[in-house]
Amino acid sequence: FSYSLVLSQATNSSNVTSDGDILLKLYPGWNAATPFCSWTGVVCSASGRVVKVLVESMQVQGTLPEQLGLLDQLTYLSVWRTLYSGTIPSTFGTLLNLEQLWLGKSKFSGTIPSEFGLMRSLTTLDLGDNDLRG
Q1: Which of 10, 43, 101, 105 has CB 3.0 to 4.6 Å from 52, enough for a Cys bridge?
Q2: What pTM does this model have?
Q3: Any idea of the CA torsion for 57, 35, 43, 119, to the nearest 10 degrees?
Q4: H/E element, 24
Q5: What confidence tens digit (pLDDT) does each residue in 24-57 have?
Q6: Is the Cβ–Cβ distance between 120 and 94 less than 8 Å?
């Protein structure tokens, strides 16, 4: 006789956060009923992961969500010239593929996170016209 053994790992869906869920925390104006890769300002890779996000020159406000650090395939992020405020999340240090980060002309304050030093791929960083130190 023969048998097969199937191993499965149970997952808790409440702990799983998709790229789309993270983006909705950044800008709730996107339509959650449509695929996030089709949202204006979002570019995805062939594998369906977010690689580029542009929320520029918009009257959007709030704080940047810590969960942005989970977008591990992100290479470009721009929230330039927005009304985002508060501190910049230290979780940005986990964005090891990030090449360009545009946060200028917004209302950020506080200290520039030391974790920015971990972003080895970063070639462009715009923090101008904010109330940042460090």
Answers
A1: 43
A2: 0.86
A3: 90
A4: helix 19-26
A5: 999 999 999 999 999 999 999 999 999 999 999 9
A6: no
